[in-house]
């Protein structure tokens, strides 16, 4: 086992992980899979970073996960038209909305305070 330095190393590591994936816990193969997972994760974080969604996309994703409609957020945002304006990025979230949405949707405040562009 060695560090992943190239795309070929990465592909080789993924193939090896496929073989080790169902290794029985406590075996040398299981230990190898644990270490290999860390090495693969480090390489992916460096070469294939996944950016967090902007606050509005995070809200929409959570709404979908919870099977919520826009009308379900009226209490947190304030009025049907206000919810529409926020979700269509015509208006920015306020601090109060962020607090309310964080509590209702179980999203971290950090995921809601990021900047995003308003639509024109």
Automatic annotation (TrEMBL):
GO molecular function: core promoter sequence-specific DNA binding
GO biological process, one term: regulation of DNA-templated transcription
Top-rank taxon: Bacteria
InterPro entries in UniProt: Antitox_HigA, Cro/C1-type_HTH, Lambda_DNA-bd_dom_sf
Coiled-coil intervals, chain numbering: none
Span of domain HTH cro/C1-type: 59-112
Name the UniProt record assigns to this protein: Transcriptional regulator
Organism of this sequence: Dyadobacter luticola
């Amino acid at each position: 086992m060695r560090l992943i330095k190239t795309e070929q190393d990465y592909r080789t590591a993924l193939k090896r992980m496929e073989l080790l994936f169902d290794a029985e816990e406590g075996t040398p193969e299981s230990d190898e899979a644990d270490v290999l997972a860390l090495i693969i994760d480090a390489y992916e974080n460096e070469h294939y970073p996944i950016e967090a969604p902007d606050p509005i996309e995070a809200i929409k994703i959570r709404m979908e996960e919870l099977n919520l409609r826009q009308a379900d957020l009226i209490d947190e945002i304030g009025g049907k038209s206000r919810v529409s304006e926020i979700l269509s990025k015509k208006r920015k979230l306020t601090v109060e909305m962020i607090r309310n949405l964080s509590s209702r949707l179980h999203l971290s405040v950090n995921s809601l305070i990021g900047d995003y562009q308003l639509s024109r």
